[in-house]
Amino acid sequence: MGNEGFYVALGLKAWNAQIDRADKIFGGLSSEEILREVAPGRNRLLYLWGHLTAVHDAMLPLLSLGGRLHPEFDVAFVSNPDKSQADIPSYEQVRRAWNAVNAELRKGFERMPWSDWVQRHSAVSEEDFAKDASRNRFAILLSRTNHLSYHLGQAVLGLK
Amino acid sequence: MGNEGFYVALGLKAWNAQIDRADKIFGGLSSEEILREVAPGRNRLLYLWGHLTAVHDAMLPLLSLGGRLHPEFDVAFVSNPDKSQADIPSYEQVRRAWNAVNAELRKGFERMPWSDWVQRHSAVSEEDFAKDASRNRFAILLSRTNHLSYHLGQAVLGLK
Fold first, then answer.
1. Min CA distance, B119 vs chain A (Å)?
2. For residues B26, B30, B33 and B34, what is the CA-based torsion angle, rounded to 10 degrees?
């Protein structure tokens, strides 16, 4: 595999480091703490965690690793802002979904041959991919790792 | 170069995307706005920008691209918390340093042969690198991109 697989391994290591960090930040909160806003009038920690779960869930079809586990999270955590929906998944439901989704991604990452990482992701057509080969699966991994970091930076502000 | 250089290009694209985002967030603020806290009692935007500048400046020697341009930023923005130092660089000084440091990094990235990205970074000894080859320059690029995203997530909370 030469260095090619090595780059993928480094990308996955960075991803795993941020997942571990998220586990530590969100996993140890009480059911009151998870309802704290990260700043006055801003998103609650529960919303951020659900949002991250939904975005990671959508990576499954995007990377051709399988179907979504929790498409119903989008209404609560992606297409609508926090505090706009009367009924959103509970802390326990988000925790279970977060763990299930990231475990499914991990399994998929382990199965994926190195060379597949530079293949197109499923949201880009073959035609568009022929014009811009950077719209591939590795780019999704990097951008979702940054997306996770971005919201973790916010989440820590909601911890006391 | 096969796909190896392609992975580096994807890593650099992700870096540049976050740098552009930072330019937009910090670059257009007034001299009052830059002094806003991201949340009550938390870091001011100026501190975050100076902090990112100092951390990027330290990447120059870390990636063997040259000496630091602004080592004096560390006292103001790294080794001490915000609002603890009487005299810190001004908005204009931070802006100039931010631009200079990132331009210098860009030049260095352009000069660096693809294969150098998997070489050790300067903060790890040859002995330790022999034990863990993942402590290389590409890993630094990914981790600093995530660091930037992390603080940008906080910075947007300080915008109105």
1. 11
2. 50
CA distance B151 to B80: 17
**Nearest-angstrom CA–CA distance, B49 and B27:** 10
The separation between the first and the last C-alpha atoms of chain B, rounded to the nearest angstrom, is 46
3-state SS assignment for residue A120: strand
Distances A44 to A27, A38, B98 between C-alpha atoms, Å: 15, 6, 32
Complex ipTM: 0.96
Backbone angles phi, psi at B38, to 5 degrees: -75, -25
From first to last of its 160 residues, what are the pLDDT tens digits of chain A? 467 889 999 999 999 999 999 999 999 999 999 999 999 999 999 999 999 999 999 999 999 999 999 999 999 999 999 999 989 999 999 999 999 999 999 999 999 999 999 999 999 999 999 999 999 999 999 999 999 999 999 999 999 7
- A49 min Cα distance to partner chain B (Å): 14
Residue given tokens 């801003």 in the structure block: A42
From the list A143, A146, A157, which residue is nearest B38 (CB)? A157
